[in-house]
């Protein structure tokens, strides 16, 4: 029986294609879907995770979350939402803003991310320290967001934060957006403090509010190496961008290879003794879809 | 596709949809989302092994394949949610 002789170049081409396509004779999946390849992806993701967890501890501030947040946009965004929901606009209060500033600096100083500090200091302690005698008060926190709109949108979507945002019990608000290094990551912490003064005559005037808005700027944690005011956080590497891109790229690449596997196997009638490709696709697609839908650009508490 | 096969897939879709619902429901708590995705991965590996065992074609390599897919998917989700 005469054997079919193939040109070496054609052979090489097919060898390369088998990285992406199932093998007809061996009845195996594409090489990039083999157990060895899957183990390699697993190791790659584990190394990436280790890198992003270890580097901030060894070189604080190198990694971080790029952001450009300003108080004017946070304030206007909040009031826009309140007006849309038939609520009165809040006034920007200087005492609440100072309290928010102190809270943000305290979080950087003691390296925590919570409503209550490790020493037991509560949000109300910061407000009372500024001699703001309140009837009602509330606090919203955010970190790792890219811009002001993202922060306000996330607060609005979160039921507990929306409750503060749309509460009729508040007349005033104070903001702080402070840059610094938290847990080794360069980031911007946003503090929003709400209040209603016990003496309603003390509510900030429009003049006071405008002065405050014109003077507002992002400050930097006193612990940072460069205490100058910086309008935006620009770390050497943006953690969110890097991890999201890599994770979705690996997931998407796997889905692409699995779809290719189904298509080519059906076309060529290749029967493989493996797990179910369709089940793998279903699982990966549903997980990545869920992740995509719920993906938040930052963190809230 | 046999009726048994279709039933198995239906159970997979039902299970993953339930996990998906809770994943979206707890969208503001990343730690709970991480726990849900870990449980979903365990469920998927369990489904794969049980399904192949019931069909009488379970091998160590097939079980390993499901473990690899489950682990990899969980690690991808963990990386995005934790950092």
Automatic annotation (TrEMBL), chain A:
InterPro entries: CAP_dom, CAP_sf. The keyword Membrane applies. Gene3D superfamilies: CAP (3.40.33.10). Signal peptide: none annotated. It comes from candidate division WWE3 bacterium RIFCSPLOWO2_12_FULL_36_10. Coiled coil: none annotated. Keywords: Membrane, Transmembrane, Transmembrane helix. This is SCP domain-containing protein. It comes from the Bacteria. Residues 77-192 form the SCP domain. It holds the Pfam family CAP. The chain crosses the membrane at residues 32-55, 246-265, 277-295. The keyword GTP-binding does not apply.
Automatic annotation (TrEMBL), chain B:
The chain crosses the membrane at residues 7-26, 32-49, 61-82. Keywords: Membrane, Transmembrane, Transmembrane helix. It comes from the Bacteria. This is Uncharacterized protein.
């Amino acid at each position: 029986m005469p054997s079919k002789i193939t040109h070496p170049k054609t052979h090489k081409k097919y060898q390369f294609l088998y990285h992406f396509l199932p093998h007809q004779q061996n009845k195996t999946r594409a090489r990039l879907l083999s157990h060895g390849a899957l183990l390699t992806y697993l190791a790659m993701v584990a190394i990436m995770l280790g890198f992003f967890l270890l580097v901030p501890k060894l070189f604080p501030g190198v990694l971080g979350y790029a952001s450009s947040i300003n108080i004017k946009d946070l304030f206007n965004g909040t009031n826009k939402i309140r007006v849309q929901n038939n609520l009165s606009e809040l006034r920007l209060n200087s005492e609440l803003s100072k309290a928010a500033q102190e809270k943000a600096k305290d979080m950087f100083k003691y390296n925590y991310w919570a409503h209550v500090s490790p020493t037991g200091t509560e949000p109300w302690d910061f407000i009372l320290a500024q001699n703001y005698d309140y009837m009602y008060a509330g606090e919203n926190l955010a970190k790792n967001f890219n811009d002001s709109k993202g922060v306000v949108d996330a607060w609005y979507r979160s039921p507990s934060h929306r409750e503060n945002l749309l509460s009729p019990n508040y007349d005033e608000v104070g903001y702080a957006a402070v840059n610094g290094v938290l847990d080794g990551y360069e980031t911007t912490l946003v503090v929003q403090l709400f209040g209603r003064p016990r003496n309603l005559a003390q509510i900030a005037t429009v003049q006071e509010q405008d002065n405050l808005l014109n003077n507002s700027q992002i400050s930097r944690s006193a612990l940072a190496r460069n205490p100058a005011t910086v309008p935006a956080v620009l770390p050497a590497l943006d953690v969110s961008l890097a991890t999201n891109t890599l994770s979705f790229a690996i997931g998407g690449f796997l889905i692409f290879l699995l779809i290719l596997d189904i298509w080519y196997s059906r076309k060529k009638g290749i029967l493989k003794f493996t797990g179910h490709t369709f089940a793998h696709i279903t699982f990966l697609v549903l997980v990545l879809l869920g992740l995509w839908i719920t993906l938040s650009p930052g963190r809230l508490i | 596709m046999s009726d048994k096969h279709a039933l198995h897939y239906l159970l997979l879709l039902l299970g993953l949809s339930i996990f998906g619902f809770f994943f979206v429901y707890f969208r503001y708590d990343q730690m709970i989302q991480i726990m849900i995705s870990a449980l979903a991965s365990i469920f998927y590996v369990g489904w794969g092994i049980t399904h192949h065992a019931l069909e009488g074609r379970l091998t160590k390599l097939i079980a390993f394949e499901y473990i690899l897919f489950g682990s990899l998917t969980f690690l991808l989700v963990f990386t995005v949610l934790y950092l």
